[in-house]
Amino acid sequence: MALSAFNPPSTAERVRGYLLDLQSRITGAVEAIEGPRGARFLVDPWRKSPDEPLQGDGVTQILEGGRVFERAGVGFSHVRGAKLPSSATQHRPELAGAPFEAMGVSLVFHPLNPYVPTVHMNVRMISAGQPGQEPVCWFGGGMDLTPYYGFEEDAVHFHRICHDTLKPFGEGLYLRFKRWCDEYFYLKHRNEQRGVGGIFFDDFSALGPERSMAMTQAVGDAFLQAYLPIVQQRAGIEFGQRERDFQLYRRGRYVEFNLVWDRGTHFGLQSGGRTESILLSMPPLVRWAYQHQPAPGTPEAELTERYLKPRDWV
Fold first, then answer.
1. Residue by residue, what is the 3-state secondary structure of 226-261?
2. Residue 162 and residue 150 in contact, taking contact as beta carbons nearer than 8 Å
3. Is residue 167 helix, strand or coil?
4. What are 189-226's pLDDT values in tens digits?
5. How distant, in Å, are the alpha carbons of 42, 137, 163, 309 from that of 235?
6. Which end of the chain is more exposed for a tag (fewer CB within 10 A), N or C?
7. Which residues of the chain have pLDDT under 50?
8. What is the DSSP string of 9-59?
9. Which residues are known catalytic residues?
């Protein structure tokens, strides 16, 4: 594959190699949880055709109908285009319309058991530059947890891993990225948080290219430690139709956020990305109910009253 002129070849190779290895490690861990007879990931390599405006390739891995995960998608993409989409230039207007290169790994896991939270993680790099100018490289990513039934210790554990991962890169980064996550994963039309948060950062290069890349890789590496202990703790809890119905109802909020507010979804669609890969974050089943209100004092009511509000979890 031809490497972008925006970055030294060694940098592009390192980032791409890291992302492919991260995807492999995460899918391997999920298959281990599914067990030797459990569901396996469909591996779907793809490449953009030469006549498309966006060039590049990727690997979409999707697991469906698992013992633990009803749907788990982990996508790697590496694309190049002649014109940076507007969704990626909100903080860098001088790069509007510039040639760009973007690569990343993005995942969303939708467990079968309503007591296991949905999770999202993304790490990415974008490089762009106007002709005749020095190109600019920046990073983004993070991870966030979306429970259907709240457990204090799960939220604390998830945020503790996020905090400890960022601490070597700067004392204030966790609080900054935690606040950013709370503000970003917020359904304005519902006046409601999507979940218990985590960390989120975008357009980040404040530590310089090498250190910013190292921080982004540390976030990707911390994902399994942040999420898998929660899965192992909750996947065996018995549930019935009531819990299942509430899970499907709350998944509707996830769909609403991804389609209405998520910049990553908008970036992929605006830039001519691969639709099936962009929408792998969608749950396999979901339901909406008109003006649904959980009964007071129930665990379902507790979710919005106690957990779907910005809190200091660490």
1. HHHHHHHHHCCCCCCHHHHHHHHHHHHHHHHHHHHC
2. no
3. helix
4. 999 999 999 999 998 999 998 899 999 999 999 999 99
5. 23, 40, 25, 25
6. N
7. 1-10
8. HHHHHHHHHHHHHHHHHHHHHHHHHH-TTS--PEEEEEE--TTSSSEEEEE
9. 120
Contacts of 148 (CB under 8 A, 6+ apart): 114, 115, 117, 118, 243, 246, 247, 250, 303
What is the token pair recorded at 5?
């002129």
Condensed to tens digits (0 to 9), the pLDDT of residues 119-129 reads 999 999 988 87
Query: Of 58, 56, 104, 63, which is closest to residue 82 (Cα–Cα)?
Result: 56
| Distance (Å, whole) CA 272 – CA 81 | 9
Give the list of residues 6+ apart from residue 289 with CB closer than 8 angstroms, or none: 249
Q: Within 13 Å of residue 146, how many CA atoms lie on the same side as its CB?
A: 26
Residue type, 80: R
